[in-house]
Every structure is written in structure tokens, then in C-alpha cells.
Amino acid sequence: MNAATTAGAPAPDAKATLWSPFSYSLFRAIWIASVVSNIGTWMQNVAGVWLVTTLTTSALLVALMQAATSLPAFLLSMPAGALGDLIDRRKMLLVTQGFMGVVAFALGALTLTGQVSALSVLGFTFLLGIGSALNAPVWQTVTVELVPRSVLPFAITLNGVSNNIARAVGPAIGGLIIAYYSPGYVFLLNGVSFVGTWLVVYRWRRETEAATGPAENFAGALRAGLRYVQYSPAIYAVLVRAFAFSFGASAMWALLSVVTARRLLLSSGSYGVLLSWLGAGAITGAFLIGRIGHRLNFNQRVLLGSVVFVGTNLALALAPSEYWLFPVMFLSGIAWLLTMTSFSTTVQLHVPKWVQARVVSMYMLVFQAGLSLGSIVWGEMADRLGLVTSLLVAGGWMLVSLVLAVPFPMRQAENLDLAPAEHWPEPVVQEPIDPDDGPVVVMVEYHVPVAEQPAFRDAVAPLTRLRLRDGALRAGVFADVARPELITEFFYVATWGEHQRQHHRFTREDQAVEARVRSFHSGPAGPRVTHFIGFPQTPNVEVPATPENSPGPQ
Q1: I want to staple 385 with a disulfide (CB 3.0 to 4.6 A). Which of 233, 269, 373, 389 is the partner?
Q2: Where exactly are the structural domains of the chain?
Q3: pTM of the model
Q4: Which fold has domain 218-415?
């Protein structure tokens, strides 16, 4: 029994609401732990920047604090996703949470004893960034294991709420502690928050998963994740839309403080109030999810969020006073939460468990890349062309990005069955085959009447994409020139082990595509499937013909 079937959970046919995820005790415990941990992280960010500011006169070192936090995410998001799919996720969370706790305690101790320097704060911040980068993709995917699919959109929304609660509370608490005591106590409290999360994860008795096929190596797992995204139109569409949105929306995050200080000539207090309105909107958006979810699908929510951020950028450029910006920030917070949860939920609902952490890590990387690149572009444009111009162009970008909904629509996934089909029989072999042997060619022969072949061609195209998505290096369909009704589908896989993994990657949802193709086959028996493995010394990659390896006379 998994966490989603614990006692006290609602009946399967009960209508899910925002509060439904809290009916699952483990999700409730982990959510509370994440709120505490996120508050500690925001306290740490404030205390770290303030401490460096007091320890050095170098503006560069202060600016590098943000780089020390974000750089590990760019470097390690994808490797972290691969690790999250290869090893036990509970054990990985225990390691990352424990590592970050030790780092936070060490920094707190050094600060309180007066042995810390600006460079050492940067170094410890970078180490915390490494722990966070390794932790984030796995933490995102854990939610899928704690609640059923019908409740998952609300669970992801609540995760977004926890981040916004922490953003509102953490800096304030951190600032008070710094003002009356020392940043060292903030670091120690952050360490305590990691300990709390570690204990909650430790109590999670996650079921051991049975091995399915030969184990992947690290490099192969990275390639498999990239290949899965490349041949999954639904995921590819989310990545394109997420980058476009984050690139345009980054103008608000990058330039809000500049608008407050330079265009409206207000104090830092007003900047904090605007951020509070933004956070209040995000929390309000969580309570609107239930109502909006029955009226707008994920694609429509992203379109609505993009339209709101067109207005956000225009208001930041043209609003005559802060009072005009209060409702704008509130609506922007609602739009931000709706859009973020739509992206995240769509990704997680479209991905089977075997590749989940890898795909989530790529989504996080693309989204953060849009925010980072956008911040640079809009900031540079503001310096060169003016603040108002930069914000108007950002609004124009958001408006044009609406067109992406046509070629890259976000697809619904609530009813997808992504459990392994496990319906392919194991190939008949004369003797055991080493998983590293290869290459392997699989051929499936269909007898299709010539008149039905145009429809067959349309049906087999999605199946070819599935072969490539699940591990094939090449795939295609050929007709016999002597017997036109004989159609052969082939796919080429690097090793026997990789083909065995294909057997376990094919989902029940994919079966419908395969069944559609097989419905065109005519004959007393089903399509004939044959497996070929590279003859001894056959290279696993193509090599140019040379006098030594070229074929002899025919």
C-alpha cells in the first residue's frame, strides 16, 4: 500500500478540492516540513546577503551571492534529475537534506564565533546551492507518490502556496533576528529546519520498487531523459511555453525595485508592500484553483496568465502611483500561481515514473533559464533605452507569446494511464545475451492491403515516435517491392539491455497507439516480430567503409 491509500483518505469518487491533499497524512507532514524549510531558506538568503554586505565593501562580492545560489541549479539540475530516477528518492532526499543541514550549522557556528569572511559565506552559500539543486527535482516528483492523480493538481498548488507563505514570512523573521541578535542564529535556525524535514522523510516508509530490466548507467539515463523530451510533443510544448512566459514575466521580478525607487521615487518599505500584495495574490490564487479548474483547462490558464502579465508590464511602465500598482500586483500573484501550477502539473501528469525526475529537472532548468536570461535582457535594455521602454517591450513579448498556443498547445492529461503495459512477450533466444551486446534491430511484419496503406501510414507515425522516445536510435517503415502488401516496421537500438528497458517503458496509454496500427494487419496470425543482434565484431555505430572493412565482391 502506498501513501495515497492511507487510512482516512477520501473515497476515490469523492470530488477533489484544495484541501483534499491534506487528507493524506504523509503529504500533510511533508507539506508542513516544506513550509518550515522554505521559511528557513528565505531567512538564510536575507542573512547571507546582509552578512556579506557588512563584511566587505565590494559590490561584486554582494552581487555574487545570487550567482552562488543559482549557478548550481544550472550546472546540476539535469544530473540531479537522472540521479533521482536511478536511485531511491527517499535516500537521496535524506542525503541532500542532511548535507544542507550540516552546511547551515557550520556556517552558523563560524559566524557566531567570528571566524567567517565574505568569501567563506559565498562558499557556504554555493554548497547550499549544490544541495538545493540536487534536492529540487526529486522533491518535486515526490508529490506524485503521496496523492492520487485526481488530487495531484491541488497538491502541486499547495506546494506553490508553501513557497509564497515562506517568501512573505521568511525575510521578515530573518530581518528581525539580524536586527536584534546575529545572522549566525538565522543560519542555525535554517539548519534546524533541515533537520525537521530530514526526520519527516526518514519516517516515510517508501515501498521498494522492483527492478525492471537492466539498470541504466548515469550517462545513458541523461540521454534517455533528453530523448524522451525530444519525442514527447506534450512535454516539448510545455518547455517552449514555459520559457516564453518566464522570459517575459522576468521583467516584473527584475525591474520592480527599480520602478519603485527610480520611477515612483518611493522607499524600500513601499517595495516590500508591493511584494506583499504579490504574495497575497498568489495565496488567493490557490483558493480560486477549485473554481477555475472546472471552467478553464491548463492551456487556457496559461493564456490568461500571459494576458495578465501583459498588463503587469504595462502598469509598471505607466502607472502614476503605487496605489495603482497594488491591485496589479495582486492580480499578478494570482496569475503567477495559476500559470506555474499549470506548467508543473502538466509536466508531471504526462510523464511516467521511470523518467519523471529527469523531465521535471529539464522543465525547472528551462524555466529558470527564461527568468535569468530575461532579467539580463530587460535590465540591459532599461540601462540603454530607458526603464519604460524596457517594460513596454516586455509587455509586447508577452502579447506575441500568446500565438505559441497554436503550434504548442498544452494537452490535458488527467485520464492518461502511464503504468507500464508489460504486454510484450520476452524474445525467444537460443542462449543468454549480455545486456551490453548490440546493436539490436527489431522488425515487425504487417500484411496491409494496398488500399488501406495511406491510413496505415498515418497510424504508424505516432508509433515510430514512441519507439524513438523509448530508446530507439532509428525507426522507420518499409514496403516490400515484390509484395507491396508486406510492410515492415523496424527500430534500431544500441544494446540488448536498452531494448529490454523498452519493454518496461511502453505504457498502457501507448498500447492504444500500437493497437491502432495492428488493426490494419490482415492474416490468420498476428504481426511477425523478429529480433536481430549485431554479428560478432559488428560496430555499434556507423563507420565509413575502408579497404579493410568494405564488403567483398557481390
Answers
A1: 389
A2: 18-206, 218-415, 440-533
A3: 0.81
A4: Growth Hormone; Chain: A; (1.20.1250)
